[in-house]
Amino acid sequence: MTTTAHPQIPILDLKPEIDELRPEIMAAIGRVLDRTDFIMGEDVHLFEQEVAAYLGVKHAIGVNSGTDALVIALRALGIGPGDEVITTPFTFFATAESISMVGAKPVFVDIDPATLNLNPELIEAAITPATRAIMPVHLYGNPVDMTRVMEIAAKHGLKVVEDCAQSFGARWQGTQTGTIGDFGAYSFFPSKNLGAYGDGGLLATNDDALADTARMLRVHGSRKKYHNETVGYNSRLDTIQAAILRVKLPHLEKWNTHRREVARQYNEGLKGIEGIVTPVLTTGHAFHQYTIRVQNGRRDDVQQKLAEQGIGTMIYYPIPQDELPIYRDQYPAYEQSSLAAKEVLSLPISGNFSLISSVLNSLKSI
Ligand SMILES: *Cc1c(COP(=O)(O)O)cnc(C)c1O
């Protein structure tokens, strides 16, 4: 009897990368232990310099998480109670949560079904006298049309905070996402394109004064120790995480290129299949996720069948933000966002090509 059992393919497997880099990572952690500079140590400063150089931005500021990066960006821009921030309903909760956390109100605009990102053409209609900022999210690593967003922001005197949690290394027309708006907020959550081995985040900005305020906010609102000027945060990037990230950063371009090549193979393999919509491939896309749309109400069935064959998939995100218990009944319906939540399915993206081809074969046989 022959068996056609497929290998177990998880949506994400961090082990191969850890195995590849283990000696360097252990050595980097060892150097931190030798120095005992656990808080704001040497690796944090060096990592900040290396990221600033990589992104082509003046200031990179390590913080405790991507969520904190968003919150500190909003606080540094002076956004708080009574203010409105325009963003997408189709994102991870932390985007809208950061706006609520500073006491402002998230105002959602629907997504463009072609990109699944907020539709810039809907922004102007959502602007009110209370609007202070736009928070675009480069979902799945796919850059938002930042030319259009910046044009609208300039016209209406709005600030721009880019949620780059999923887009480290992505580029809009050759420029790194996160370096176009007033702030870029990045996450080093372990599953992100550049992932730490714990929580971590970073802010990027070209503005000296904003950088200074953000640095003040991350250490309890003090520029000088014990001279606190405002209520801030305990939100530093751990030295051990910075040391790990310094080992990983030089590999990022190669990893992102691999993701784009996997995406290209998926798109090619899934071409012409009725009811499956593949993502748009652009050179600046960082493919944090490779996400297809399964139409005609078949998504959950396809996910179930893939699971039976040992293939892990995820739904990012099953519930748009405006439909979450916290925000429900406060917003109108966003048709494209609601539909996307019922159709999206993310496939394994970081595995080797033979894993990818078994995912493709399974998908084609369903
Ligand atoms: C992961 C993520 C965040 C939050 O990052 P954390 O480091 O987990 O706090 C924010 N926004 C988006 C779009 C994300 O995917």
UniProtKB/TrEMBL annotation:
BP GO terms, sorted: polysaccharide biosynthetic process
Residues with PTM N6-(pyridoxal phosphate)lysine: K192
GO molecular function: pyridoxal phosphate binding; transaminase activity
Origin: domain of life: Bacteria
Keyword Transmembrane helix attributed: no
Assigned keywords, A-Z: Pyridoxal phosphate
Pfam families listed in its UniProt record: DegT_DnrJ_EryC1 (PF01041)
Protein family according to the UniProt entry: Belongs to the DegT/DnrJ/EryC1 family.
Name by which UniProt lists this protein: Erythromycin biosynthesis sensory transduction protein eryC1
Organism: Deinococcus radiopugnans
